[in-house]
Each structure stands twice: as C-alpha cells, then as structure tokens.
C-alpha cells in the first residue's frame, strides 16, 4: 500500500505540473491594473518606411489619362491570376540598392521613404520633367499587400498576404489558424528586417500592454514564431480531463502490474 500511495503522490505531482494554467491560455490579461478598471490603450504605430524586397503598386492619374498610360500597369488577360500574383508582376520591387525602375522616369531611390513621401517625390519629378501643373497629376503609392510568415504553434503556419494598410499581431495570428492551448502566448518572437540586417523581438500576447508595443503592428516580411509550451514536450493532455484520464490510465496500469507481480 505504501508503494501505491507513493506512486499516486508522484503521479499527482506530475499531473499538477503538467497542467496548462488557465491564465496562460488567455489574451488581453490586464497585468498592471485591477480587472474591472477602465483602460485607455494608445496604439503606437509609426509610418512604415520602405525596405528592400518590398513591392509597391503605383498609379498615376491625370486629366488626359492617355498621357500617363505608360506609367500604369496594363490589365492582365489572365482572369485566374490572384491579387498577389498581379501585384508581383505589375508592381515595382525595391531592389538590393533601394531603387525602383519606372517607365520614362528611370531609377528612383525609395529606401527608407514612407508611401506618402514617395507620392510627393513622384509628383514633383513628373511635374518638373514631363508635365505642367495644369495636367493635374495625382499619384497613389501603396504596399502590394502585407506579406508575413507565421511559424510554430499555430493552426495554419505559412506565408500570408493581407491587402490592407496595417495589420496588428492579433490579426496576423487570427489569419494563421489561431494559437492552440499548447502555444506559448507569453513569448512570441518577431523577426524583423532592417537596413542593417534582421533583429529578433519578443512580445507577450498575454498582456494588454502589447498594444503599446512598437511591434504591435507587423511590417512586410515579418516572421512570427510562436513557441510551444513545455507541457507539449512532456506529452501530457491539454485539458484538465485529459490529464485526469492520463493519470487514471497510468495508475490503473501500474496497480494491475503490481497485483500480478504479487500473485507470482
């Protein structure tokens, strides 16, 4: 009986350690204030500055559209082409030197510029070299979708592209199949591209303070990695009842083995 009691206590200890705490499965946990307090969270979003390998979609409009036709992409006859594929073929890719090449305008450096700054740059260049102010030149520059990669403990890992101006980390995760119970929401890594190379940043999705982080909004070509919790490597159940069933099965197996051994 002492052996069974000791074994039961051991299994109980393993069970308690292997359980995934409920608080670790949540988002937006207020760790700094009372749970019922009113929070005013300021989202920190700086204007995105164009990096190498970004793809820009550029449209030029004028009173006489025929005069700017060469600057605009031609509609593809391939109706099966996706929006991402059209952007790849019709957009302007920022090369390793931070330049794009446009018809009649030649090579233009856009590295480190915002899309608004590129619009003004192109308008000024067109008006000074090819058109008069009466042409009413109007330029729009956008990123050809927000492309990012999600890896690790998510329902649908892979590279995604969302066609919107800005995407926060929760939207990126939601579009990647959500984080399962075995995913570590407290330590999510973001690998971000900078002119001098790549850097790894850590964010805690379990804390509401993440919305004040400079990494709350993702950037094009970000790599998001969700680590697994230690409980996954232990092979225990994900829920309370699964752990109960595991302990009960192990206890039954060991008890049966002991009883059979004692009969010999």
TrEMBL record:
Using the record's annotation, list all stretches that form the Polysaccharide export protein N-terminal domain: 45-141
Query: Where is the SLBB domain positioned along the sequence?
Result: 147-226
Which species does the entry assign this protein to?
A: Mangrovimonas yunxiaonensis
Q: Which GO terms describe its cellular component?
A: cell outer membrane; pore complex
Membrane topology term? Multi-pass membrane protein
- Could you tell me what this protein is called? Sugar transporter
* GO terms for MF: polysaccharide transmembrane transporter activity; porin activity
InterPro entries, alphabetically?
Poly_export, Poly_export_N, SLBB_dom
Family indicated by similarity: Belongs to the BexD/CtrA/VexA family.
Q: This protein's superkingdom?
A: Bacteria
Q: What is the phylogenetic placement of the source species in the record? A: Bacteria, Pseudomonadati, Bacteroidota, Flavobacteriia, Flavobacteriales
UniProt subcellular location? Cell outer membrane
One Pfam family for this entry, by name?
Poly_export
Determine if Protein biosynthesis is one of this entry's keywords: no
Q: Name one GO biological process term.
A: monoatomic ion transport
Give the record's keywords alphabetically.
Answer: Cell outer membrane, Ion transport, Lipoprotein, Membrane, Palmitate, Polysaccharide transport, Porin, Signal, Sugar transport, Transmembrane, Transmembrane beta strand, Transmembrane helix, Transport
Stretches that traverse the bilayer? 240-261
